[in-house]
Amino acid sequence: MKRLIVITDVTRMREGRVCVAGYDQDGNCIRPVLPPPGIHERTLYSQGRLIVFPFAVVEYDLLQPVPQPPHTEDYRYDPTSVCFREQLDENRKRELLTKTLFPSVKAVFEVPIYSDIGYYVIEGQGPRSIGTIQPKRMTKAIYEQSLEGTWKYRLGFVDGAGMLYWLTVTDLTWRYYNDHQRKAGRDPAAISRSLTSVLKSRAVYLRVGLTRGWEEFPGRCFIQITGVYTFPDYLEGRTIADLAPEPEITS
């Protein structure tokens, strides 16, 4: 079944892999998936050109649904079928995000949210694993190095229900933007301050999604930020291809 999907989420996973999600012509949220090891970042490109990125319209041949609640959007696809069609302009981007809005984080998932270690829901429950919110207030962007040497990307915000969240950002473009700024010589603290100012002064839409359980927490699906979008666009039209480290583009 060939479907046109407007990509809304391209997120970082482990070992060079990514997760992709978007909406088809009928407004259904679709997450194209492959068997292990999954989707590698290099497959976002075709003949050296980026074809799968936020707000690209991409054709997929969907083979069969493979829902595993709360990840009800999963759909196996033919990896040879992926074809770029067009890119949405700013007005159409905002229209899509507005159409997919939920009033709060809890309204997206419709199940209890626990917060003893991070924010998570219980695996096997809920009608969906991803959605759009518009924060009532952005509090802070954090970009810093952990004690282990890895880089941390987090956002604090208050949602429409008045709940404060601090969530990890897995949005690949957001991560590459932060890294690109640092490699250009900016101090991470200055990057954090600058992005905090941007987020507080512009219209912000956040995509929030759920991880899958893993060895340490097999029954928990943690909430993460899978897309950060501002109007005006903080990227100023740039995409993953403009910000990615060179090896990721040429591999």
What report would you give on this structure?
With 251 residues, the protein is α+β, with helices and mostly antiparallel strands. It has one domain. Helices cover 20% and strands 39% of the residues. It contains 6 helices and 17 strands. The chain has helices at 90-99, 105-109, 172-183, 188-201, 240-243, 246-250; strands at residues 2-12, 17-23, 29-33, 39-40, 45-46, 49-50, 56-65, 74-77, 83-87, 101-102, 120-122, 130-133, 137-145, 151-158, 164-168, 203-210, 220-231. The longest helix has 14 residues, at 188-201. The model has no long low-confidence stretch (mean pLDDT 96).
Short description:
It contains six helices and 17 strands. With 251 residues, it is of the alpha+beta class.
- Output the structural class: alpha+beta
Overall average residue pLDDT: 96
**Order of secondary-structure elements:** EEEEEEEEEHEHEEEEEHHEEHH
Number of domains: 1
For the sheet with most strands, the description reads: 5 strands, mixed, barrel
Q: How large is the count of helical segments?
A: 6
End-to-end separation in angstroms reads 30 Å
Rg (CA only):
17 Å
Tell me the strand percentage band: 35-45%
The poorly predicted ranges are none
Strand order of the largest sheet: 1-2-3-8-7
Please give the oligomerization state of what you see.
single chain
Number of strands: 17
**Outline type:** globular
Query: Level of helix content?
Result: 10-25%
From the structure above, extract its key features:
about 250 residues, alpha+beta, five-stranded mixed β-barrel, five-stranded mixed β-sheet, 6 helices, 17 strands, about 40% strand
